[in-house]
């Protein structure tokens, strides 16, 4: 007997028809003799509707009450799915987080799961029951409802898989799996059959948002095998393992890109010790997420140019903070709102020489100017003009044999 | 210091604007130094939306899961109202039923509140906090979510008022209070300032649905004074007391009517002991609610005609059950779908002679034929042709000095 955690995202449960389809998927697993715990998201659009209600009251809606509000979304899906299963004669039951309980710690809207009581649900599974758990939420030590951040249902699925010692954790979504690049933009994009946690992390944090990154991290930490697959087809999905379990035939696994980036350059910064800290500390305090940072060597040894990238909608806030920063001296600030980040990702890169050169040459062949570069063991990212994004992805996809 | 339970119905919290208005009402009470516990319904239409979702799966949606589903409606209102209060600097907090807890017993969708833990909330009230509780729901002894029937938020309000020993229980709704008859139909209808529990019960069960009858019953049992008032005006509402506290200057307090009635007559029933039980037992088992029953004295002592009224949408089901009933013998069954019940209600009726005669005479003056009659201590009901309803109400409203 196999114990499976199946997680169904918002589009997978976006209508009654789809919830009934999910019930059929669970029925198939159940008939095959598997024990099933299903984790469900709120119906597509529901969480945004609730957030908008709260914003109609005020933008800084009390976070404790926001969690009470938002948690209703997954509660509704859980009840509907349990009802749909019972209708097709499966002994199913929804378990709200306080009923289990799923204990969390940390701030409202950003809590972490620290413990899950498994006894009652395991008893139920042993009696051929199917347990339905709303994702994204838990309770705090003082018994308040908490939520664990947008996309948190993935984190719930992985935590449940870990604590229940499940044999499989399958993430059902609206795409066939993880692709070598965005299939909507590049039709020759290919579904990846197997991928390592690291690669998946790089791909997902770079815009291929199939799974929530922190959930992948947790799976990696506890070595929980994942599979991302489509709710709407029978095709096998993408299996996510630790690197050791994958034979790499290709050095590059995928090409990712992120939109909505912007580049800021501080020109002629007085180059003295601590200057980087002086620049970035106030940004970090203002919750501005700085991505790539490049500091050019200063030619006169006295001033330097510092370039970094952030999300586009934080450009003006960032510039304002820089201008009000009395701890730094500089000549000017320039910004470019129309940039994109394109990255090649692959666990095989580290053992393949010449990847960097091959990437730069390919872009140069297409006359695409590289505005900034950043590298890691399994990733190579460049910032380019936004208008060249598609051409760059296509070219890289081809030269690294992904078509 | 006065402890008040304020209950806000679905239309009172039907939009964010209205929830903010409710927050202002609570703020006023709070500034006046009163302790406030607010009980909230689901936003208008929300419960029906959720029921429709469940019906899209099946009509006999599992009752345990239906309670999980429906309870989300009041949960959403509670969070939004708490957030709206915090926004205007009032220390408010929502308490879901499992957090208090509010213990219930009885079947899902029809549970009864049996206990409420008051300590935590009382501590909060003593620190000038405003407690928000979703109505209509509780938890069972085994920790499942239960609901206490449609309109159950009134029952929650009365139970909370009783167990917290509140000084007042105010039911905020979308009308000014209880009227001497339907103000939409009869413009001279007058708001009643004071009414007894019994009268309120007769009026509400007869179609003046301002408050849920079982909540009025509970209030009567524990002698909890109620006030029904409008969320949208500042006018005083209708106070509901025990009869002893009211001086009756009029014998009749109001004229009620119910639509959607139907009358069924079984003609030539063999009159033998137990025949009534044989007729009505199968109907009761089929959950058909029989209202008035009239059995004519049989002229030949051998057969009799039995007439009873039911809701119109149950006519065909009822006739089918009668036809399949092998325990009764009769000549024919006739039915009339176009009847209405008109009632005069008044605690003063019992001490005023001639009320019955006066009512019959008034209807006869208008050439309105009485199809059936039923009486109680504080109520006199007649079944008439539906087309005469308005005329009958008008006439009765006038002759009993209610205009």
Question: Layout of SSEs?
Answer:
The structure is a homodimer of 403-residue chains.
Chain A: E1 3-8, H1 16-31, E2 35-40, H2 46-57, H3 63-87, E3 92-94, E4 102-105, E5 112-116, H4 119-126, E6 130-134, E7 137-139, E8 145-147, H5 152-163, E9 168-173, E10 194-196, H6 197-205, H7 213-222, E11 226-230, E12 238-241, E13 254-270, H8 275-285, E14 293-295, E15 303-311, H9 315-323, E16 332-345, H10 355-365, E17 370-376, E18 379-385, H11 389-399
Parallel strand pairs in A: 1-2, 1-9, 2-6, 3-6, 9-11, 10-12
Antiparallel strand pairs in A: 4-5, 7-8, 11-12, 13-15, 13-16, 14-15, 16-18, 17-18
Please tally the helical runs of chain A, counting DSSP H or I stretches of 4 or more residues. 11
Number of strands of chain A: 18
Terminal CA distance of chain A reads 39 Å
Number of domains of chain A: 2
Largest interface summary: A-B, 36 and 36 residues
- Enumerate the strands of the largest sheet of chain A in spatial order, edge to edge or round the barrel: 3-6-2-1-9-11-12-10
Unreliable residue stretches of chain A: none
| Strand-pairing-aware structural class of chain A | alpha/beta
Q: Radius of gyration of chain A in whole Å, from Cα?
A: 23 Å
CATH topology of the largest domain in chain A: Carbamate kinase
* Helical residue percent band of chain A: 25-40%
Question: What's the main sheet of chain A like?
Answer: 8 strands, mixed
In CATH terms, the superfamily of the largest domain in chain A is Acetylglutamate kinase-like
What is the CATH architecture assignment of the largest domain in chain A?
Answer: 3-Layer(aba) Sandwich
Molecular shape of chain A: globular
**Residue fraction in strands of chain A:** 25-35%
């Amino acid at each position: 007997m196999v114990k499976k955690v199946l997680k169904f995202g918002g589009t997978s449960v976006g209508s009654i028809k789809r919830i009934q389809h999910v019930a059929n998927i669970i029925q198939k697993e159940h008939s095959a003799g598997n024990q099933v715990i299903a984790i469900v998201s709120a119906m597509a659009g529901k969480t945004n509707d609730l957030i908008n209600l709260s914003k109609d009251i005020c933008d800084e809606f009390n976070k404790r009450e926001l969690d009470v509000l938002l948690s209703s979304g997954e509660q509704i899906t859980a009840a509907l799915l349990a009802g749909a299963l019972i209708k097709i004669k499966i002994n199913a039951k929804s378990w709200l987080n306080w009923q289990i309980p799923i204990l969390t710690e940390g701030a409202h809207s950003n809590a972490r799961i620290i413990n899950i009581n498994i006894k009652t649900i395991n008893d139920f599974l042993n009696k051929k029951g199917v347990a339905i758990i709303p994702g994204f939420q838990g309770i705090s030590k003082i018994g308040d409802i908490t939520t664990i951040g947008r996309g948190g249902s993935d984190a719930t699925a992985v935590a449940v898989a870990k604590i229940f010692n499940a044999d499989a954790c399958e993430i059902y979504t609206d795409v066939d799996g993880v692709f070598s690049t965005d299939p909507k933009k590049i039709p020759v994009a290919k579904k990846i059959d197997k991928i390592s946690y690291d690669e998946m992390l790089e791909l997902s944090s770079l815009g291929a948002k199939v799974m929530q990154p922190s959930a992948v991290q947790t799976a990696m930490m506890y070595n929980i095998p994942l599979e991302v697959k489509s709710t709407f087809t029978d095709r096998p999905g993408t299996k996510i393992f630790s690197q050791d379990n994958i034979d790499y035939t290709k050095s590059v696994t995928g090409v990712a890109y992120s939109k909505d980036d912007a580049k800021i350059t501080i020109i002629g910064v007085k180059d003295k010790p601590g200057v980087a800290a002086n620049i970035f500390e106030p940004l970090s305090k203002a919750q501005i997420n700085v991505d790539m940072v490049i500091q050019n060597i200063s030619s006169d040894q006295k001033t330097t140019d510092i370039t970094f990238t952030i999300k586009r909608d934080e450009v003006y806030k960032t510039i304002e903070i820089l201008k009000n920063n009395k701890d730094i001296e500089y000549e000017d600030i320039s910004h470019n709102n129309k940039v994109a980040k394109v990255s090649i990702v692959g666990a095989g890169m580290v053992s393949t020489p010449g990847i960097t050169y091959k990437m730069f040459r390919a872009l140069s062949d297409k006359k695409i100017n590289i505005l900034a570069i950043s590298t890691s063991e399994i990733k190579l990212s460049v910032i380019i003009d936004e208008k060249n994004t598609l051409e760059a992805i296509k070219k890289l996809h081809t030269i690294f044999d992904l078509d």
